[in-house]
Amino acid sequence: MTMLTILSKELRSYFSSLIAYVVIAMFLIVAGYSFYTYLVMFLTFVGADLKVGLWQYTFHYLRFAPLTLIPLLTMRLFAEEKKMGTIELLFTAPVRDLDIILGKYCACLLVYGLMLALTLLYPALIALYFSVEPGPLLACYLGLLLLGAACIACGTFVSSLTENQIVASIVTVAVLLTLWNLDWNEGVAGRQAVAVLHQISLSEHFLNFIKGVIDTDSVVYYLSLVFFFLFLTRCSLATRTWGLK
């Protein structure tokens, strides 16, 4: 059994139940509403200058979608295995913990990637009538992809801590919103503390992307969060394995 086997199993599990379809549908409803609303606003009040501003507003509205919808995808990754008692089968199978983690993580990331790919219809429609500036659009999509990747890693870790999917979902949302809002209450922190909070805030780094800027520090930040939470997940599974032994 390899990582690809785990990935294939997880993808089948997602699309053999309603969860993936429901989450994708919810995401597309939010994305479609955001796109339509700001398109009408720009055409009515701002004019036809849609190259940058439309995407900034649309993705700024979409920023909370990964924080609230991704936990619905990640809550089952390990919690369901524990609830059904199949986690022991995974541990006794000839597969490394890292392969299990990456297989489950990549499966969820692919589902999320599909959600984003379906929204490419919007810039395609705009391109039929107006010019589309690829740079700002690419930056917005990259930011949303990296934000989602970090959220999935966080949800994977939380799911490895419990067998209750609802608890896993709620805790993941709480952790993500805490990371998002770290720098929102600047009045209670000193200047140096605020500077640190800006550096570790999910929202601060995401804003760079919707401005049309692909900032290296922000890319490294999100990737670091991914590795950090996946490392914690591996530690969590290692602890569980010791208990089984």
Briefly characterize the structure.
This protein has 245 residues and is mainly α.
Structural description of this entry:
The chain has 245 residues and is mainly alpha-helical. The protein has one domain. Helices cover 78% and strands 0% of the residues. The longest helix has 29 residues. The radius of gyration is 19 Å and the shape is globular. It starts with a helix and ends with a helix.
Spans of at least 5 consecutive residues with low confidence: none
Count helical runs.
13
Span between termini: 21 Å
Give average pLDDT, whole number.
84
State the helicity in percent bands. Answer: over 70%
Return Rg in Å: 19 Å
Oligomer kind: single chain
**Main sheet overview:** none
Find the structural class using helix and strand composition: mainly alpha
Percent of residues in beta strands: under 5%
- Shape descriptor: globular
Task: Return the string of H and E elements.
Answer: HHHHHHHHHHHHH
The number of distinct β-strands equals 0
Count of domains: 1
